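Query structure, 417 C-alpha cells:
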C-alpha cells in the first residue's frame, strides 16, 4: 500500500473517530503523526516536530488569554455596549459591521488571521451577550477578512499577483479583488439569511448565567479598564502598523493587566481554550508532516494531469479547498499556482478566472476549526456546548468545501473557458 493511501486513509479514520466519539481529534492526530511519519514515510522525530504550529499556538493562547483578562475586568462589556450604541441598538446589524471592518482591515494590508484574532473575541462576546448565533457572527468575521484579502495592498493579494508576474500570464488586480469580495459577500448574505434565526447550541446553565449578569454598563471606566483599552489599542497598532507577532503582544498585555489586578485575574488562564489548542496543533502537525513528505504536492500534480482543461480546473479547485481546510492557505496558494500555469498556457482557459477561482477556493474554507481563523472563532465562543458548536463549524465548513469550489469554478472559470 502506497504512503499516500496510508496517509489519507489515516486522516479519514481519525477524522471520523474524533467526530463521532468523545475523544479530542488532536490527540488522535499526534498519535497518527508519529505512527505514519516513522513507519510509512520514514521521517525522524525531529522532522515530525518541525511541523508543530508554534506561531499559531502562541497566537491562540495570547489572544484568548488577553480577552479573558479583559472580560474579567469589565472592559469587554463596555466595548460590547459601545458597539450596540454604534448601531443604535439594532443588534442584528452587528455581524455586518464586523464583516465590513474585517474587510477594511485586510484590504489595507492586515494579514487575515491577525484581523480575525482582533475581531473574533469581540464578535463572540456580542453573540453571547445579545443571543446572536455565534456561528453566523464568527463565519461572517472570517468571510469579511477574506473579502478584502486579495486587494493589491493585502498579503494574499500581493502574493498571488507576485506569483503570476513571474510567469507569462497576466491577471488584473481588480478582477482578483472583486471576485473574492463578491463571493464572500454572497456567502455572508447566504449564511445570515439561512442561519441567523437558528437555535444556538447552548451549554448547560449558560442561558441562566447570561441572564443573571447585569447588561447595563454605567459610570465611567476605572483606571484598569482604561489601561486595558490602551493595551488593546497597542495590540492593534503593533500588529497592523509594525507587523509584530500578535500572540506575544497579547501575552505581554495580558500579563501586565493581570499583575495590576491579581485578585480578579487569578483564574484568567482558564479562559484559554486548551481543548481547541490541542485539536488544532495535532491536526496541523499531521498536515505539515504530509507536506514535508511531498504527499500534498503529489496529490495536486495527479489532479492537474487528468481530463479536459475545464474539468481539471474544477478538480484543482476541489483539491485546494479540501487541502486548505486542514493546512495553511498561504502555503497552498504558493504551491498550486505554479501547478496551474502549464494548464493555462496549454488551454483556452481564462488565466484571471482560474487564478481567482483557485484563490477563492483556497481561502473560503478557512472557516475550518483546523485553520487559524476557524480555530480563533471556536476558541473564543462563549456560552455554547463546545462539542455541538464544533460539529456546527465542521458541518458549515463541509458545506463550503462541497459547494464553494463549484461556485468559484462556475462563476469565474466556466463562462470564459
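Result returned for the query:
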Amino acid at each position: 500500500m502506497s504512503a499516500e493511501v496510508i496517509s489519507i486513509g489515516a486522516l479519514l479514520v481519525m477524522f471520523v473517530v474524533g467526530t463521532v466519539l468523545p475523544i479530542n481529534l488532536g490527540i488522535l492526530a499526534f498519535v497518527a503523526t508519529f505512527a505514519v511519519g516513522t513507519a510509512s514515510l520514514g521521517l525522524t522525530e525531529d522532522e515530525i516536530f518541525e511541523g508543530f504550529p508554534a506561531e499559531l499556538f502562541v497566537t491562540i493562547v495570547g489572544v484568548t488569554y488577553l480577552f479573558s483578562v479583559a472580560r474579567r475586568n469589565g472592559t469587554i462589556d463596555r466595548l460590547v455596549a459601545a458597539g450596540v450604541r454604534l448601531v443604535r441598538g439594532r443588534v442584528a446589524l452587528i455581524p455586518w459591521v464586523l464583516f465590513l471592518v474585517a474587510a477594511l482591515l485586510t484590504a489595507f494590508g492586515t494579514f487575515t488571521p491577525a484581523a480575525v484574532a482582533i475581531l473574533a473575541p469581540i464578535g463572540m462576546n456580542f453573540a453571547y451577550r445579545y443571543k446572536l448565533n455565534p456561528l453566523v457572527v464568527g463565519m461572517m468575521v472570517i468571510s469579511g477578512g477574506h473579502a478584502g484579502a486579495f486587494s493589491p495592498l493585502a498579503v494574499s493579494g500581493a502574493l498571488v499577483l507576485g506569483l503570476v508576474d513571474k510567469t507569462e500570464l497576466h491577471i488584473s488586480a481588480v478582477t482578483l479583488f472583486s471576485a473574492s469580495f463578491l463571493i464572500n459577500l454572497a456567502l455572508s448574505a447566504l449564511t445570515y439569511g439561512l442561519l441567523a434565526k437558528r437555535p444556538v447550541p447552548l451549554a448547560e446553565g449558560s442561558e441562566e448565567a447570561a441572564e443573571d449578569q447585569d447588561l447595563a454598563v454605567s459610570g465611567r471606566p476605572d483606571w484598569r479598564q482604561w489601561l486595558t483599552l490602551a493595551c488593546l489599542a497597542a495590540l492593534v497598532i503593533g500588529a497592523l502598523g509594525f507587523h509584530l507577532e500578535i500572540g506575544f503582544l497579547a501575552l505581554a498585555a495580558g500579563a501586565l493587566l493581570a499583575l495590576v489586578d491579581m485578585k480578579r485575574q487569578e483564574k484568567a488562564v482558564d479562559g484559554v481554550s486548551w481543548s481547541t489548542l490541542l485539536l488544532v496543533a495535532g491536526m496541523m502537525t499531521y498536515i505539515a508532516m504530509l507536506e514535508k513528505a511531498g504527499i500534498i504536492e503529489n496529490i495536486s500534480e495527479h489532479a492537474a494531469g487528468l481530463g479536459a482543461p475545464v474539468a481539471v480546473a474544477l478538480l484543482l479547485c476541489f483539491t485546494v479547498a479540501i487541502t486548505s481546510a486542514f493546512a495553511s492557505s498561504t502555503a497552498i496558494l504558493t504551491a498550486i499556482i505554479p501547478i496551474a500555469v502549464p494548464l493555462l498556457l496549454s488551454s483556452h482557459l481564462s488565466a484571471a478566472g482560474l487564478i481567482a477561482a483557485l484563490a477563492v477556493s483556497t481561502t473560503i474554507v478557512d472557516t475550518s476549526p483546523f485553520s487559524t481563523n476557524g480555530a480563533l472563532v471556536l476558541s473564543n465562543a462563549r456560552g455554547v456546548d463546545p462539542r455541538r458548536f464544533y460539529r456546527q463549524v465542521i458541518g458549515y465548513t463541509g458545506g463550503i468545501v462541497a459547494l464553494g469550489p463549484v461556485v468559484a469554478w462556475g462563476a469565474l472559470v466556466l463562462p470564459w473557458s
